[in-house]
Design goal:
The protein is α/β, with parallel strands linked by helices. The protein has 2 domains: about 5-90, Rossmann fold (3-Layer(aba) Sandwich), CATH 3.40.50; about 95-200, 3 Solenoid (UDP N-Acetylglucosamine Acyltransferase, domain 1). It has 3 helices and 23 strands. It has helices at about 15-25, 55-60, 75-90; strands spanning about 5-10, 30-35, 45, 45-50, 65-70, 95, 100-105, 110, 115, 120, 125, 130-135, 140, 145, 150, 155, 160-165, 170, 175, 180, 185, 190-195, 200-205. The chain is globular, with a radius of gyration of 17 Å.
């Protein structure tokens, strides 16, 4: 049986990583991507960039199943804005899980969330809508992650942690069990979070020792 088509919103590096997960999962076939004006007419891993955000209404009429494939490093705002617009357009935003990830059958994922290669989402974890659980990330049992968050590569979120909406946990950061992290926080690469963080907290990445 032919798999359904999916339109990716974004045409950069994160989109390429999403394509790799989608191809291995096999649930969907990539119809194309939405990028910047300069990217239109080009290809990402062989798939065409069909238009820009201005073309979304027409594109989703033909391809109503979509995935936001814009990354979240400096700010969550592009992903949040796109999510709201795609909801208004009536799009379907499925959960995408790499066959090389483990998501417990006792865990919950929100719509539009992608779990990438090697990631683990353990029992009784709850991950919100439009989140990125990136390659090799660990989300332990009982963790609650709100909407529009990014748990970056090899980050470890230990049991019972609560993370507010639009928060970024950087690569190889680790969060101690039962810690509460507020909304719109930025936890830098390699950090060790052992106490609660208020909304908007910004903990910069650990600097390399020269």
């Amino acid at each position: 049986m032919r798999s359904a088509s999916i339109l990716l919103i974004g045409a950069g590096g994160h989109a390429a990583a999403c394509i790799d997960v989608i191809e291995e999962d096999g649930q969907f076939t990539v119809a194309g991507l939405v990028g910047s004006a300069a990217e239109v007419g080009g290809r990402v891993l062989g798939y065409p960039v069909l238009g820009t955000d201005e073309d979304l209404s027409a594109l989703v009429a033909d391809h109503p199943i979509v995935l936001i494939a814009v990354g979240h490093i400096k700010t969550p705002e592009p992903r949040v804005r796109l999510f709201c617009r795609l909801q208004d357009l009536g799009c379907q935003m499925p959960k995408i899980v790499s066959p090389r990830a483990h998501v417990s059958r006792h865990a919950t994922l929100g719509i539009g969330t992608i779990v990438m290669h090697g990631a683990v989402v353990n029992a009784a974890a709850v991950v919100g809508r439009n989140c990125i659980i990136n390659s090799l990330a660990l989300v332990e049992h009982g963790v609650v992650i709100a909407d529009h968050c990014h748990i970056a590569t090899s980050a470890a979120v230990n049991s019972g942690v609560q993370i507010g909406a639009c928060t970024f946990i950087g690569s190889q950061a680790s969060v101690r069990q039962s810690v509460r992290i507020g909304e719109r926080c930025l936890i830098g690469m390699g950090q060790r979070v052992i106490t609660d963080c208020i909304d908007g907290a910004h903990i910069p990445a650990i600097k390399a020792v020269s």
